[in-house]
Amino acid sequence: xxxxxxxxxxxxxxxxxxxxxxxxxxxxxxxxxxxxxxxxxxxxxxxxxxxxxxxxxxxxxxxxxxxxxxxxxxxxxxxxxxxxxxxxxxxxxxxxxxxxxxxxxxxxxxxxxxxxxxxxxxxxxxxxxxxxxxxxxxxx
Amino acid sequence: xxxxxxxxxxxxxxxxxxxxxxxxxxxxxxxxxxxxxxxxxxxxxxxxxxxxxxxxxxxxxxxxxxxxxxxxxxxxxxxxxxxxxxxxxxxxxxxxxxxxxxxxxxxx
Lengths: 140, 108
What we know:
The complex is a heterodimer of chains A (140) and B (108). Helix content of chain A is 35%, strand content 27%. Chain A has 140 residues and is α+β, with helices and mostly antiparallel strands. Chain A has one domain: Heat Shock Protein 90 (2-Layer Sandwich), CATH 3.30.565. In chain A, helix 1 runs antiparallel to helix 2 and helix 2 packs antiparallel against helix 5. Chain A is globular, with a radius of gyration of 14 Å. Chain A starts with a strand and ends with a strand. In chain A, 37% of the residues are buried. Chain B has 108 residues and is α/β, with parallel strands linked by helices. In chain B, 42% of the residues lie in helices and 19% in strands. A 5-stranded mixed sheet of chain B has the order 1-5-4-3-2, with helices on both faces. In chain B, helix 3 packs parallel to helix 4. Chain B is globular, with a radius of gyration of 12 Å. The interface between A and B is medium-sized, with 25 and 22 residues.
């Protein structure tokens, strides 16, 4: 298999589309014949990051690079940035607004879940500029 | 056990789903989506009161066998459409999550 690149746009504040990019990526990985447990890890991590973009930023873009060994996903937004990454990484800490919580979000599990399911995770964030999260998930 | 048998034994109402032969291997209860997504296992019956489009997304990603909306929790129209597109089975019952989970534990 050669390297495959996929791109997705994520709309701001649109919960009817939230999860679409991660769902599409999941299907593509299935079609490419990846192992189910790897697909699950990618799908969960990217879904969480995608939902974060919808809730906290004004949408963004997702770029995935797929090789037989590893899936690398870069999620970039132009949102408000994360003031305290260490705090945001704590399970249970959430800044999701009330209307979003009523939809079942805001458990404060997003970033911890991403970390849990990826082999590498880096967060580049700048207040007022945006956040870019890079995830890497590899075949074990 | 498959979903069809689950429906018959627990008298569940089918809101969405055509092929009901998906195998059921466990059960998970919860309404916080991130929590459920990271902990529910493939093949679980997911008991929840969240009948919105995001629940369908979580069901697809976590690859659960089906969603059971307990206490007659409503399924909204967007969620139904998304479930149809993604072949997600959604069932409903007037019983609460405890009652259904207890019944499932006797079946599997």
